[in-house]
Amino acid sequence: MTDTNALARERTELFHDLIDGKIPKRVPVAMGFPIEFAIKYAEKDLTEAQWDTSHLEETFDKVCQDFFSDLLPVNAFRFPSFYKLLGARNFVMGSSGFLQHPEIEGMTREDYDDFIANPYDCIVEKILPRIYTELNTDANTRAMTMAKAFKAFFDEMGNAQATYGRLIEKYGYGRVNFFAGFTEAPLDFVADQLRGFKGISTDIRRMPDKVEAAAEAATPIMIKKGLPPVPPSKYNAVFIPLHMAPFMRTSDFERFYWPTFKKLVEALAEAGYPSNLFVEQDWMRYLDHLYELPENTIMRFEYGDPKLVKEKLGKKHIISGFYPTSLLKTGTKQQCIDKAKDLIDILAPGGKYFFDFDKVPVTLDSINVENARAVLDYVAANANY
Question: Per the database record, which ranges form the Uroporphyrinogen decarboxylase (URO-D) domain (predicted)?
Fold first, then answer.
């Protein structure tokens, strides 16, 4: 236990140095495998294991044993039980055992005015009954359904959090939480959950003023949603996956996406929480915008030019990502290690960098696990300053 505690202190110090602007002893590693990958890796049935979380610790423990990481390398954001109780249309369990997010429309064009005037009431009274079919009923039944769903939610998440705590203690992971809270950029929320990708893309052309106002109206809710239930700390970050921006014209991004997104990140920083951004797709044309965000915003890049990102953002913000999971599937072990070397040579100098893949490997067959292990072990043993 003493050795585990010492390891936890060492790993925590790596990330504290990273965030405090010091150069760590070595490049920290922060891997994250989702529940679907972990279930398949533990050789369990995907369609059954997500419904019975009593074996969650056993499932996650297998990943912890076999893949190096300085922070807990497993997570579960969603479970099917509470979505099933709600009759969810936005998250549906597919026949393959993967929770799918289909294109939906929870808010019609005619609802914009109501949403802008009072977004919370509009969500509760109009949007939720459309997204969750079991809420489209009388008040008493709706209240009972919500109570059952919240009970399932807190049971599942409580079990997951307890599991995380035990695994962190067992393996001596660092005491830094890059997923202390979760929220969305305001326009992403309007697009993902209310209008759908097709709907919002059409609305930007046909009713731009209302789209702009809707993003503004959603911003206070997204700020409130993002505030974690833990004390403010620069070591507790709020996770924000970014969706719409790469698919927008720059002028549209600057009008509809950026102002409210920047306001969200700044509000979280003012409350004492940095943001942990998953910079999905290609954001290279927006690097100057990203630079404007509060110092030490964490940015995990999926695509782009790591040299340019390091040059433009590396002195102000914390960078991660870029390592292509596709190479772990197709490359030789040496090719995979060489790619890690190249990225470390580019991104590690001066600090403000931790190692992670460009995206989480959702399916077991999306990577060669031997290559993944080899890369993580190489970085842990060789990425010293």
Answer: 129-355
